[in-house]
Design a protein that fits this description.
The structure holds 3 protein chains of 3 kinds. By secondary structure, chain A is mainly alpha-helical. In chain A, about 75% of the residues lie in helices and about 0% in strands. In chain A, about 55% of the residues are buried. Chain C is of the alpha/beta class. Chain C has helices at about 45-50, 75, 95-105, 110-115, 120-140, 155-165, 185-200, 215-220, 235-240, 245-250; strands spanning about 5-15, 15-30, 30-35, 60-65, 65, 80-85, 175, 205-210, 220-225, 230-235. The chains are: A mainly alpha, B mainly alpha, C alpha/beta. The interface between A and B is large, with 39 and 45 residues.
């Protein structure tokens, strides 16, 4: 396998992990975020600083990257998740940009806008794949459980959910924390892949990309999220040689998808149903 | 003391330019209930049209300005027709409009990157920028005064349009409930186009002034996010709110830059946003809508 | 009999409009009580106050002796109070089964770790939740439509689904908000039967808001009538039917009336 193909697969794993996190929050819990790249940034910088400056082994560093993202998410999530709809999305933009600006200006810690170089390239193919597979299994299991139902209830009817005894505020916070963890780990893996990170890599454009991937794959479908990740990652990579037009095409693709099929690839379809039909297995009737 | 006054004037000038952008943005929000992230694109279109008219065609600032307003207004209408109209006719989910607007924002920005190149361009110096002394207390530039005055005039015209004309009334009705306005006989599609035209034109004026202040480049539209913050602080959907929020933001930015540090400027902007959302999410003038259970 | 539910001088106004005035009443453990009154009388507001959706301006709600007035909604529901909605609040994209399971799952909790790994008690508890839910769907006649998205069910079935979902919470107090709304006389009769069955088979009290008098008079041995936010009459169906205040509320002033 060539180095280039390996790189693409690693990138797919990283983007997939981040996308799954955002998908849980957006597609399954109904909280729209345009600032999740900030959690990737937190994970990336935590891992970078811990491995480079403190010589910590990459494995705990990655997990701690996720951990820092979780802590920050919890801290800002508790007050802001009270906001509904558009207002939370706006807050997430503000918070995302604020975190990026803090990282840019805290030169002593993060070396500022010029970036943080010299990170050990610990994200090899086996590492990326292992993290991806384990985190994917956990996520798919998780949404097929009472938590999945609770999240969807909060998404579909917040009031009705609380009138079924569900602690909606706590549920939203849990969803945010898990999504932050996933993005933090993805960021940490990205740092170990590129060996160099800059705050500008985690700007609103990146956040939008994460949300767009989830919408593109179909809100409420984790399978769709992964399919969407594959498509968007491959398309952006394929167009890299003509990078001038790459962004233009990317923007146009976003518009076209929203106009033609906003429900996304898997919108209305269900990954499980399709797999079942494909393999013609009589299942005990999993819940959609 | 003189510095304080200076920064206040700077802040008001910057705020008034933000107001032009924020008001157009809030106008669209009040009708369609979504954040049009492509608004920055109209700003950039306005800037480049003015630049082109001045530099390449050698026209006077008045004509260039007019072309710029017209062009940006038309571009806004076109954007709405190709990207938003098909979506809003099919679904009420505003998230899809939001993402489409992000897409359009990227498209517009990158069209200019490809066509005009990413260099920073300075507008020909047709807008006076010489220093002006005010009552011997402070010095400001003619530019600041001019942008403030122009913004005032533009917003004044908008106010007259909204309160004294038939379409203005229709827009205010639609801001309460678009569907009902449609049921009352208002041509909704035409109304939306008019709103976008106005928003685009206002953004163009802002774009021209911002190009003078910061030079012109394709990513200039990113500054719209500050106008967006201003609109939220003032209350999404409220036009007076957008103006007040913009002035507050302009002042906050300039006072921070003057007395703390230039780098903290942007951080202060976003902190204000988060604080507003935590304390009073509907902003200064926004409406609270309760839900019937 | 000890009171299951007690409202003590509840007051609530919305921006100058007094929605509920000095409302007090009591219900026992197995009571079936009807709450009637013209539109806008404040009946749904009472439900919202009991379930913590609105906080009353003054007064207390006591459930089994405990003051639940300032509790959060989900805490109140967890104390075994359930309600249905005037305008239906199902989860339209989820199947009927999933709707009920979302309610039933609180009966069979399992840990976060078990949810993520699908090990431990996950399988057993999920099966239990599923069985419980299917049973309830069977009871309301929805067993064969279990996997259909709730939003696509015929209206009458949606109403039944809401009831099944509320029952999945294992309530001791069931609040039904206009369960017969939009139903034809046949469907109302079937609903009467269902309510009677539920009351027979489950140890609960039922408080029903209804406009269909054939339901209320048939099913509720005790009725409270409200108008303009206040209680204007309380008693048996016969008492209510003959109460002049009730007649005035529904029919307006009458010179002379006879029934």
């Amino acid at each position: 396998m060539s180095g280039y193909t390996e790189g693409i697969i690693i990138l797919l794993c990283i983007n997939g992990i981040a996308a799954m996190g955002v998908s849980l929050l957006t597609g399954f819990t109904g909280v729209f975020t345009l600032g999740h790249a900030a959690y990737m940034a937190l994970g990336a910088y935590t891992s970078a600083i811990l491995t480079v400056h403190y010589g910590l082994h990459w494995f705990p560093a990655i997990l701690l990257g996720g951990g820092v993202a979780v802590l920050v998410a919890y801290g800002i999530g508790v007050p802001t998740l009270r906001l509904m709809g558009d207002y939370y999305a706006i807050a997430s933009i503000g918070l995302g940009e604020a975190i990026r600006l803090i990282l840019e200006n805290w030169q002593s810690l993060t070396r500022g806008a010029r970036g943080y170089p010299g990170i050990e390239p610990y994200t090899t193919l086996p590492v990326a794949l292992t993290f991806f597979v384990i985190m994917a299994i956990c996520m798919f299991n998780f949404i097929k459980s009472r938590y999945g139902r609770s999240f969807k209830a909060c998404r579909d009817d917040y009031v009705a959910a609380s009138l079924l005894g569900l602690p909606t505020a706590k549920i939203r916070i849990l969803s945010l924390i898990i999504s932050a963890f996933y993005c933090g780990v993805a960021g940490a893996l990205l740092a170990g892949f590129l060996s160099f990170i800059q705050p500008i890599m985690f700007d609103m454009l990146k956040s939008t990309e994460l949300t767009a991937v989830v919408v593109f794959g179909g809100l409420g479908s984790m399978t769709g999220t992964l399919v969407g990740t594959v498509v968007i990652t491959l398309v952006t990579e394929l167009f890299r040689p003509i990078s001038q037009y790459r962004m233009l095409i990317y923007g146009a693709v976003l518009v076209v998808i929203m106009v033609l099929r906003p429900e996304g690839i898997m919108g209305g379809l269900n990954g499980e149903d399709l797999t079942r039909k494909f393999f013609r297995r009589k299942d005990h009737g999993g819940t959609p | 003391m003189a510095t304080l006054l200076q920064q206040v004037i700077n802040g008001l000038s910057l705020g008034s330019v933000y107001a032009l952008i924020a008001v157009g943005y809030s106008l669209v929000y009040s009708i369609l209930l979504f954040s049009n992230f492509a608004h920055g694109g109209f700003l950039v279109i306005g800037g480049y049209l003015c630049y082109g008219a001045l530099k390449t065609l050698g026209l006077s600032i008045w004509v260039a300005g007019f072309i710029s307003l017209l062009g940006a207004g038309v571009a806004a209408v076109v954007t709405e027709r190709i990207a938003y109209k098909p979506i809003r006719e099919r679904t009420r989910v505003t998230l899809y409009l939001l993402i489409a607007s992000m897409g359009m924002s990227i498209v517009i920005e990158n069209i200019f990157v490809i066509v005009a190149g990413g260099r920073f361009r300075a507008l020909p110096p047709v807008i006076p920028t010489q220093p002006v002394h005010l009552f011997n207390i402070a010095t400001t530039s003619a530019f600041d005064l001019l942008s403030f005055v122009v913004a005032l005039v533009a917003l004044g015209c908008l106010q007259i349009f909204l309160t004294k004309t038939k379409w203005g009334l229709a827009i205010r009705a639609a801001a309460c409930d678009l569907r009902t306005a449609g049921l009352m006989g208002v041509n909704v599609n035409l109304l939306v186009s008019i709103v976008f035209f106005v928003a685009g034109a206002l953004a163009a004026i802002g774009g021209i002034f911002l190009s003078v202040r910061y030079t012109l480049y394709p990513q200039l539209g990113a500054i719209t996010i500050k106008a967006f913050v201003a609109a939220v602080i003032g209350g999404l959907g409220s036009l007076p709110g957008a103006v007040v929020g913009s002035l507050i933001l302009g002042l906050a930015e300039m006072l921070t830059a003057g007395f703390i540090s230039s780098q903290m400027r942007d951080l202060v902007v976003f902190s204000l946003l988060v604080i507003t959302l935590l304390i009073r999410p509907t902003g200064l003038f926004g409406k609270q809508v309760g839900e019937k259970v | 009999m000890a009171a299951l539910l007690e409202l003590d001088r509840i007051n609530k106004s919305f921006g100058g409009v007094q929605a509920v005035q000095n409302m007090s009443f009591m219900m026992g453990e197995r009571d079936v009580v009807g709450l009637i009154g013209p539109n806008g009388a404040g009946k749904t507001t009472i439900f919202n106050i009991i379930t913590g959706v609105y906080a009353p301006d003054s007064g207390r709600i006591l459930f089994e002796g405990e003051d639940i007035t300032s509790l959060k909604t989900y805490e109140i529901i967890q104390r075994d109070i359930a309600r249905t909605f005037q305008n239906l609040r199902l989860f339209p994209r989820s199947s009927a089964l999933e709707n009920v399971m979302t309610a039933a799952q609180c009966q069979e909790p399992y840990s976060f770790a078990e949810a993520v790994t699908h090990m431990g008690r996950w399988r057993e508890k999920e099966r239990s939740i599923r069985d419980m839910s299917m049973e309830l769907l069977q009871r309301v006649g929805l067993a064969d439509r279990a996997l259909q998205p709730a939003g696509t069910l015929p209206y009458g079935y949606q109403r039944r689904l809401e009831i099944a979902r509320a029952l999945a919470l294992n309530p001791r107090l069931l609040l039904l908000d206009e369960p017969a709304a939009g139903m034809n006389p046949e469907e109302v009769l079937a609903l009467n039967e269902l309510i009677r069955e539920i009351h027979k088979d489950f140890p609960l009290a039922i408080l029903v808001i209804e406009h269909h008098m054939d339901l209320v008079m048939e099913v509720c041995p005790h009725i409270i009538c409200m108008n303009f936010g206040a209680k204007i009459a309380e008693g048996s169906p016969e008492d209510i039917q003959n109460d002049p205040e009730v007649l005035k509320a529904y029919l307006g002033e009458e010179e002379n009336h006879h029934d």
